[in-house]
Structure formats: structure tokens, C-alpha cells
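#struct-pred

JT: dropping the chains for the assembly here, can someone run the whole complex?
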Amino acid sequence: MGQLLLHGWKLISRGFSSLTPHPLRVCIVGSGPAGFYTAEKMLKALDGAEVDILDRLPTPFGLVRSGVAPDHPETKLSHLPETWKQIVVNQFSRVAANERCSFFGNVNLGTTVSLSDLCKMYDAVVLAYGAESDRYLGVPGEDLGGIYSAREFVWWYNGHPDCSNVSPDLKNTDTAVVLGQGNVALDVARILLRPINELETTDIAEHALTSLRESTIRKVYLVGRRGPVQAACTAKELREILGIKDLHVCIQKADLLTSAADEEELKKGRIQRRVYELFSKAATSHQQHDIVGQRELHFMFFRKPDRFLPSESGNTVSGVRLEKTCLKENGASGKQVAVGTGQFEDLKCGLVLKSVGYKSVPVDGLPFDEYRGVVPNMKGRVLSLDQAEHAIVEKGLYVTGWLKRGPTGIIATNLYCAEETVASILEDFKNGLLTPSSGSPKPGRQGLLQVLENKNARFVPFSGWEKIDTKERMEGELRNKPRKKITTWEELLLAVDG
Amino acid sequence: MCKMAFQSLLIPHVTGKAQEESSEQKEKITVTFVDKDGEEKVIQVPMGMSMLEAAHENDIELEGACEGSLACSTCHVIVMDMEYYNKLEDPADEENDMLDLAFGLTETSRLGCQVIAKPELDGMRLALPAATRNFAVDGFVPKPH
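RK: done, full complex below.
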């Protein structure tokens, strides 16, 4: 599909260079992989296109900076000295360096500029701001202290300025429970169980390193509603966590028994097959006795959280009541769903991390599907409902990334997603749908700069990020790390000034 | 063997130069890339070069988002003939982990950055994934994995 789109663009853009009276002005909200891949493809497809990328943070790159776990192994290929994370960052930096592209950090959609402002100023607005909230479990006790979403915990150890004060208490307990078995669940479990010396040379936030150094957590449970056949993690990440030195991994052999429906799922799914094989191997090979002081990782299957149990003080969590589940086939979808059996057990713990999915946040004036947590769209074109409840296309408004597809996939998934959205934009451009009705061109970047000036809003250009980057790397060198992250809003903006 | 003899007939050189040219040919293999429209591009790939690198050098639109560091699956290619697929070394776990996530995976799918030119691969044909939707090549219909 990618080749079809690229071929089509070549034809379209060749035609356009001579026809367009003014360049297409595009504004992308969000500078993570979704935003940057969209910008890259937009700039490549149209010789004259101008692309502005906004982000509410002073720093770009989204989850590449704040989501990727700091301890992921360096590439094993000796001829590539950089980690793949750095490769992606370099690629995005080249996009930002394009003279037709400008980065505007510290600009918030909603408080600094409104969506309608942007639509007035740009021919096309692409929303790529991802998913900054969480799916809620909706069980009693969910608001107790000591219960966090995995997103908050990840942002905390990655130094995101919104979560630098989360301060999870890692000293009140020896057990943490992670609800969910996707790749993010594995990430947080791994960070909790890594020997501290292995974290010291990473770019993990200093405040997290300090907490983890003093942490008394020695046991982590990864709890899933369904079985190993349905586990959401992928082979690479599972292999990584199973390979941690001196870690006792517990998987019940009974949980590996498969039903006919399970076998069907395994037959159809290569990913599930390889994950299941890893679980099977791990269950048989880790049979040794507990070594005193050894850290433990328990994979618990067929359990769903019924409620969180408070401690004596009443404020913090002291355990999770889990209900045993069994799988029933959901006739409509053919999928197997977990159904409670009425058997309960309590699991003592002092820290709970909910890793059950991210959720996007709606914005004023933007159609939003509350249930799925995404913006309704057709190949990236935003859809809204007219008075007769028919879906109509919102002219000039597009989505890409998690806001479009939901919070799934890897970084590279956004590449294909961006291709699709950009193809829609180009098609609409070709069909004259993005030409302003008034006839005069939209102000684009100049308009945005004016709005920002009027509001006395201080934006951070890409060169501002480069100052932050230089400072972080210099501080990191002193500590034998790739960088020492700056983790508060004040200090980030201060570094831009310096 | 026949190909080299044929080509040396075409080249109006003295024997010495023809021999030089044919020994140069031993250092490169011929690879055909087939895009989703069935359009073919025949290129020469020096020994030791990956198919991803070769594609880029010849303006073939093969993405390589992670630049060959086994962190994505965007350089996914389909080896069109089982005979050539079998000449490749088995993929390592790391490559299989990334192939898991490739779009339109087939039984003869590989990552372009991991397929390295060697003499036995001379004449290999590689399809870019979208190409498998519409047609069968050489009687081989790639099955979705």
C-alpha cells in the first residue's frame, strides 16, 4: 500500500508545483512519531508545503522521549553505535531542520491556541497528539494511594515534567501488582526488578533512580484477565524480561493448558504462537528453588481485579481482591472473553500499576468517540455528525497516530498511519477542497506567530530544544549516562533561555 | 556460465578486458525488485551489501525506519521463489520478533536489511509487500501468515 501512495504522490506533486498559487500550509499538533512521520511525508510529497509542528511540551518527540523504557538494550549490531531511539530522534531532527518546517514547543491546543484558531490559519490541521489519559477500571478503591496508571509511572521514571512529583512509595512493601500484560506492563515490571547498577548508566530520571535504589520491592505480579494465548505482549519484550539475570520467573504450568478455541487462536496468530512458546519454555525451565533475596516475577493468568483493599490508615492500598476467570467465546466476534467465576483471592501489595490501556483526551470543537477513545475518522479525515446524524467530513481537519487508531502498535506503525493520512490530504488538495473559500490564502505560520504574540505566549523553537538537549547530554557525561533529564517545566524553560 | 559467455560476445573488447569484466561480475549479483504494480527493476548488488541498502542506492522505495537495527519491520520483502528463500540463513530471533509485526507477512518474508548479497542469491526476485495482494508469481501464491 505504501508503494501505491508514494507513486500517487509523485504524480500529484509534480503536477502541483506548477499549479499552486500559494503553498499548502499545514499545522500538525503533536511532535511524537505520528506528528513527525506526517511532517516528513508531507514535506516530501509537496515541494512547496509549509509544515508547522506544535507541542504542548518544550521538548519534542513525544513518547520516544517519555515512553520508551530507559533500559532497553542497545542495538546488538556493532557497526551501529547509536541506539535505535537515537536513530529515530536524528531522523525527526532532520525533518525539523527542513527550511519549510518549524517547531513550536510550549504551545497548548486549548489554552494557547484553539482548534478553530488553527483551522482559520492553516489549510490543513492534523491532530497527532496521541493519548495522554488512561482507561479506568471502575472498581472500588481505585482512588487509594499507591495505585497509579502505568502511564504516570512511565512518565515519572522518564522525567516527564507533568509527573516529576508523582513520588510513588517504593519502600512500604515488597510486592507490586501490575494489572495488564502488554508491553507497557512488562516495561514497568522490568524497571521495578532491574538491578540498580544496570539503571545507573541509562537516561532514567534522577528522582526515579534514587527511589529505585531504596526500593524494597522484590516481587512483581503481572496479572491478566485471560490466558497466555491472549497475552498482549510481543515476543521481543517477553524474551527481554525472561532474560533478566538472577530473576526467578514463575508461570503456573496449569495456566498453559489450551482449549480448542485457544488452539484455533494460536493457529491463526504468529505473534500469539511465538509468545505462547516463550511462556511454555519459561514455565519448564524456571523450576529451581527460591534463592533467598532473589527477585521474583509472577505471571498470573485468568484473574481480574474486583476491588482494591485499603490499609489500616484507609488511605493507601494494601492489596487487590482478584476474581478467578474462565474464557467464554463471544459469538459475535469469535473472540474469547474473560468471565468471572465467583472465586476470589486476595493478593497483598503496596503498589499497584494499572496497565490496561491509554486513552485520548478530547478537545473543544473536536468530534470524539468516548467509548473507543479516538476521533472518528475515515482514512485520517475527521468525521462529525450533521443534524440528521449522518457522518460528514470536517474539511481541512485530519488525525494521525494513536488519536486516530487507538493506543496500539510500535513506533514504526505510525509510518504507515501517516502515509494514509497524508494521502487523504493530498487527494483533498488535488480536488480543491483545501482552497480557502474567501480566495485569499490563509496566514499560516505568520498568523500563528501573531496569535502567540498577542497572547504574550512564549513558544520554544527547535533551537530551544537543542539547548535543552545539549545541557542534558553535558550533565549526563559527568555521570556516565547518555543524558541527565531536566524534569520540571521551570528548569526546561530556563534551559531554553541559557 | 552461459550468461557470461553471451555477454563477452556482445562486448567488442580484446580478450583481456572481457576477462576483467566477467571477474567484476562475480562480485555482484543480479536482484529483481517487483513493486505492487508488478513493475520490475533489475539491479546489481555487490557482495556483502544488504537488500535494504541496495534498494536505497537504486531509488527503490523500500522504507528502513530504524536504519537496519532490527527495531522495525518496514524493510519487509517477500522472496518470490522458495528456492532462493531456502538459500538464506534462518532468521535470528530478533528478526523473527520484527517479522511478527510486518504487514502482509508471508511464508517467505524476510527483512531486507538482513538479506545480504552472496553468490548463491544471483537471480533472486524480491516483491515489495503490497505486491502480494493481487497476483501470483511463478505459480507461487504467498499465504498470509
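JT: nice. Chain B has five helices and five strands. The two ends of chain B are 37 Å apart (CA to CA).
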